[in-house]
Each structure stands twice: as structure tokens, then as C-alpha cells.
Amino acid sequence: MILKNKRRRIVLVVAAVLAISVVGVKAHLADAQSNSAPASTSSDRDLIAEYRHVEVASVSDALEQITGKKMYMSHRMQPIFTSKFAGYARTVQLKKDEGNKDPEALSGMLQAIDEGSADSVYVMVVEDGEDIAGMGGLMGTAMAARGYAGAVIDGGVRDVGYLRKIGFPVFATGIVPSTSVHHYRFAGAETSLVCNGVPVNPGDIVVADSDGVAVVPRAQAQPVLALAQQMDYKEHAMYPVIEQLKSIVQAVKKFGRL
């Protein structure tokens, strides 16, 4: 009888220990999961913050060295005012549909804006749209309110005076007064596209400044950033050396950067 009671107590103790262990493991996993999402979001924000401090020229050079590709947009992609930004690509496409009377033809384009978030860059391709405004003041106001970093339009932009007034940065291939209403139809969002000759996937990093626009594939974001930062450091360190030596040849030999 005594032996049975001892065994029963041992079983109860073991069961209690196991129960406590399971609860502890579950609590640890829940804590890890609750901490992992903010860490990822914070990491994304930190990455974009770093990209906002490097020059697009250095990013472009780093991309070419690491990927072997030219990932910058052409000289036709111009800012509506001097600006610098970086963010994650949110892609949208418009296709020609001349004379359409469908009131919902462009609703997907507007929905795509409302589904974006802070640090997004609106990347739009308007088919043969150099003389068609892909966006204007209303869309720019919505993007600004949602914390978008900026917009890049392979096509035209209008309401430039108002966009300048609210300080929302846009790069586009032209400034025109036209509308896309009755001329175009929404053709998709968050899909891969080619913007001004450069492949862009949703979530790629888009960087822009006075030198133009470059696109960093998400998978290469960290190594491209590290190399671009090194290039920036060397270049800015060279300026006073060139002034002191009065020779760019000697400075290039010293730093190995041009």
C-alpha cells in the first residue's frame, strides 16, 4: 500500500513537471512569435533608413558590380522637384483601352494605393503613356497621407504645382495635363513589370535622388547597401584630398575609387 502511494505521488509529480514545462514552452514560443514580427518590421524600416543615406550613383555602381546588370532608369525619368527617397516598390500597371465608359476601369489602381503603407514607393507603368498622366494631386495626396516615400511613373504626371505644394516627390517621364480616364484600364497590382527599362518586382528597393532612380532586387539589398556605403565613404573622403593635392590622379591612386 505504501509502495502504491509512493508510485502515485511520483506519477503526479512527473505529470505536474511536464505540465509546467509545456506551459513554459508555449509561453516561450508565443513570446518569440510576438517579438519576431516587430523585429522584422523594424529591420525593414532600418534597411530603408540606411538606403536613404546613400547616393543613388553609389547604389547604381554597387548593383552593377554585384549583379552584373544596369539597374538604373534612363535620363527621361525626371523629378518634379529636387528630392531624395527610398522605399519598397508597390507596382501598378495600366493598359490602353481607348474610349472605354466603364466607371470601374481604374478602380483597381485606386485600391492599390489604399492598400499601400509607409515606406512604399508607387511604381506605375502606363502603356505608351508618356503623354498621359498616370497620377496627379488626388493620388499623390492619398499616398502622402499613407506615408509613401514617393512615386515613380513610367508615363506622365499632372497637378505638379499641388504635388510640389504638399512636398510629395514624384519621378516621371513627362509633365502633361491629360487624364487616363476613358483612355486606360487597370491591368494589375503587385506584379513584376519593367519600368523605364528596369525590371521591378513588388518589394524591391527603389532609390531616387538628383542623379536618377535605381532599383535594388530585394535578395541583394544587404550586399548592395554595404558596397554602396563603402563607395560613398571613399568618394566623400576624396574631395578634401583632391583639393589638398590639387590632383585627381593621386587621389584615385590613394583611394582606388572613381
Can you walk me through this structure?
With 258 residues, this protein is an alpha/beta fold. It has two domains: 55-71 and 217-258; 75-208, Ribonuclease E inhibitor RraA/RraA-like (Glucose Oxidase, domain 1), CATH 3.50.30.40. Helix content is 46%, strand content 23%. The protein contains seven helices and eleven strands. The chain has helices at 2-51, 56-67, 107-114, 137-145, 160-166, 221-245, 248-255; strands at 78-79, 85-96, 120-126, 133-135, 150-157, 170-175, 184-189, 193-195, 198-200, 205-209, 212-216. The strands form two sheets. Strands 1, 2, 3, 4, 5, 6, 7, 10 and 11 form a nine-stranded mixed sheet that branches. Strands 8-9 form a two-stranded antiparallel sheet. Helix 2 (56-67) packs across helix 6 (221-245) and helix 6 runs antiparallel to helix 7. The longest helix is centred in the first third of the chain and has 50 residues, at 2-51. The termini are far apart. Residues 1-7 and 10-40 have low confidence and may be disordered.
* CATH C-level name of the largest domain: Alpha Beta
Strand content: 15-25%
Number of helices: 7
The total of beta strands comes to 11
Per the CATH scheme, the topology name of the largest domain is Glucose Oxidase, domain 1
State the share of residues found in helices, binned by percent. Answer: 40-55%
In round numbers, the mean pLDDT is 87
Radius of gyration: 26 Å
Low-confidence regions? 1-7, 10-40
Question: What labels would you give this structure?
Answer:
nine-stranded mixed beta sheet, alpha/beta, two-stranded antiparallel ribbon, elongated, Glucose Oxidase, domain 1, 2 domains, 258 residues
